[in-house]
Amino acid sequence: MENKSLVTIAEYSKEKILYMLEMAKQFEKNPNRKILEGKVVATLFFEPSTRTRLSFETAANRLGARVIGFSDPKATSSSKGETLKDTIMMVSNYADVIVMRHHLEGAARYASEVAPVPIVNAGDGANQHPSQTMLDLYSIYKTQGTLENLNIYLVGDLKYGRTVHSLLMAMRHFNPVFHFIAPEELKMPEEYKIYCKHNHINYIEHTDFTEEIIADADILYMTRVQRERFTDMMEYERVKNIYILKNKMLEQTRPNLRILHPLPRVNEIAYDVDDNPKAYYFQQALNGVYARQAILCDVLGIALQDIM
Amino acid sequence: MNKNKQALQVAALKNGTVIDHIPSEKLFTVVSLLGLEHMGNNITIGFNLESKKLGKKGIIKIADKFFCDEEINRISVVAPHVKLNIIRDYAVIEKKEVYMPDELKGIVKCANPKCITNNEPMSTLFHVTDKDNGIIKCHYCEKEQKKEEIVIL
């Protein structure tokens, strides 16, 4: 049988992305179904990530599956020196699908090559986190009614932000215009700008984050500017308050604008934004459950027609 | 004249392979990539020989050994411009160059310390993404490396 693991969003064609969004939409209409009754889903979190784990486990539970796993690698045999391969082989005996988060890059790819059951990558170091990208895409699709021809503004840490890189790559099929808003030290890396050029994605770079600059945005994707990313603390002190979204900045924005954030937020979105109808980050997190229901079903060979 | 002289060097071998124009600093890497230290054949290794093109070069003559393309293309990672002469009965019957293969399995170490390949007992695998500029991409962590940065396992 073909192993249907999901390691990176790059494996999804445009058709596949739209198909998965349709599947997520069906689960949003009716999230509680017993489609995976009798199945066991393993969630192996070699690196803690409460948010992602709870989202996957909720998805599995709403589909009627049983969940096994660990959320803290200290309690597992990998702390005794067991190799990843051995852990994966052992758990493959018990579970029908393995959802894994690992601090090492490429861990999910390797696991998908050795495991007889499908692997779902729930984040491998700074590399890939495809279910996050799917929930971002679903949130954009749901709020804008389309993925085509949108003005997407990425704000904050564009250098290390894994989610913005994956989003950028997944959007290549849909003719977006990107605006990159970041301090000098956290600018979009050259390799992604080259990627944009190769894929005919238009982009504009800014260092200022003002009301005027975001006036034409359909999507404002905020990320956290992390202190530990800076080598120059003077630079951090200078920029840390520039990339904060305040409610007042939204007055002139488009009515269809929605604000996304992968969460956790620290201070980059002021609390007065939360009550603005354009704030969408909490619903975005809920969309993650539907997107992950679709992913779990897909890797287990359940098709869209089976859930209609 | 120079050509005659080179032909003479090559002709010293009855049957086998001469690998020429190896940059001196890469000579021993080439030796180990081809696993010559485990061979029982008659092998001559020339180190720091004079070369107009390279300044100093290395040369390897291996008696009664003919490599397949896959074996020989491993060298392309460290020495892309080497020339091979295939010798039969004292005559050069074929001249070959090496080509960067599409994949490098178990040859190169990934430069990313957070890559799974540096933390698990497993083979590395790289895809050659740009043959002209020698850019390779790790199959696992997806990080790219340039040829100049490559470390052989």
Can you tag this structure with a few keywords?
heterodimer, A: 308 residues, alpha/beta, Rossmann fold, 2 domains, five-stranded parallel beta sheet, four-stranded parallel beta sheet, 10 helices, 15% strand, B: 153 residues, mainly beta, Alpha-Beta Plaits, SH3 type barrels, five-stranded antiparallel beta sheet, four-stranded antiparallel beta sheet
In a nutshell, what does this entry contain?
Helices cover 35% and strands 15% of the residues of chain A. Chain A is of the alpha/beta class and 308 residues long.
* N-to-C span of chain A: 25 Å
Number of strands of chain B: 11
Q: Enumerate the strands of the largest sheet of chain B in spatial order, edge to edge or round the barrel.
A: 2-3-1-4-5
Which structural class best describes the helix and strand composition of chain B?
Answer: mainly beta
Shape of chain B: elongated
Q: Can you give the helix content of chain A as a percent range?
A: 25-40%
| Assembly classification | heterodimer
Helix content of chain B: 10-25%
Integer tally of domains of chain B: 2
- Quote the distance from N terminus to C terminus of chain B: 41 Å
The first-level CATH class name of the largest domain in chain B? Alpha Beta
Report what the structure shows.
The complex is a heterodimer of chains A (308) and B (153). Chain A is of the alpha/beta class and 308 residues long. Chain A is built from ten helices and nine strands. Chain A folds into two domains: 140 residues, Rossmann fold (3-Layer(aba) Sandwich), CATH 3.40.50.1370; 147 residues, 3-Layer(aba) Sandwich (Rossmann fold), CATH 3.40.50.1370. Chain A is 35% helix and 15% strand. The radius of gyration of chain A is 20 Å and the shape is globular. The two termini of chain A are 25 Å apart. In chain A, 44% of the residues are buried. By secondary structure, chain B is mainly β. Chain B folds into two domains: 96 residues, Aspartate carbamoyltransferase regulatory subunit, N-terminal domain (Alpha-Beta Plaits, 2-Layer Sandwich), CATH 3.30.70.140; 50 residues, SH3 type barrels (Roll). A five-stranded antiparallel beta sheet of chain B has the order 2-3-1-4-5, sandwiched between helices. The chains are: A alpha/beta (308), B mainly beta (153). The interface between A and B is medium-sized, with 18 and 16 residues.
